[in-house]
């Protein structure tokens, strides 16, 4: 299995990870919390939300796989016990594709001569269902790892300050690193979605800025209230 086959899960997990973690960092910065508190909140968020997202990914893809297998069994039953109706479905599929007369009948005969090809054709062209090439578990693992790896970026400055005591604006450093990560994930998002590269980068960057502003404002307000 090629690594690029998992790009959608990497983008999905990474984008959510960096948005939610940077929101925690921005909220903590707005409330003027200490670096150690930011680290604790950030890691708690990474592990809990990352695990939750990976479980959701697993359940979603497992359900899709179960649905595909269920309808595939039904199509085999139709082929075995009601072949005339199954042949007519194949005929209608290729009639809509523009085939007529002898060409149509030759295609119907060829497809229905192979039981597996017959079922595969009905699954794809009649029901619009295709088999997933990746297991739900592998998708969940990639989602979790990308959530944690990319979501760790906003915390790098705070981790460095905890061990080295940086003499700089930690939130500014975190914002710059996070902005670069947003652009990177946005480019990958555009590549996966076959969109113009600038569009995905700007959409992701804008999403992150919006989340950070809301979190920073909420942290500042709550800090004044309590």
Commentary on this structure:
This protein has 226 residues and is mainly α. It has helices at residues 7-30, 35-81, 83-96, 101-112, 115-126, 136-151, 156-164, 170-193, 197-225. Helix 7 (156-164) runs antiparallel to helix 8 (170-193). The model has no long low-confidence stretch (mean pLDDT 81).
As a whole number of angstroms, the C-alpha radius of gyration is: 25 Å
Mean pLDDT: 81
Mass-distribution shape: elongated
Percent of residues in β-strands: under 5%
Class by alpha and beta content = mainly alpha
Tell me how many strands there are. 0
Helix % is over 70%
The residue ranges in which pLDDT falls below 50 over 5 or more consecutive positions are: none
**SSE pattern:** HHHHHHHHH
* CA(first)-CA(last) distance: 53 Å
The DSSP helix count reads: 9
Report the biggest beta sheet as strand number plus sense, adding barrel if it closes: none
Key terms:
elongated, about 230 residues, about 85% helix, mainly alpha
Overview in brief:
With 226 residues, this protein is mainly alpha-helical.
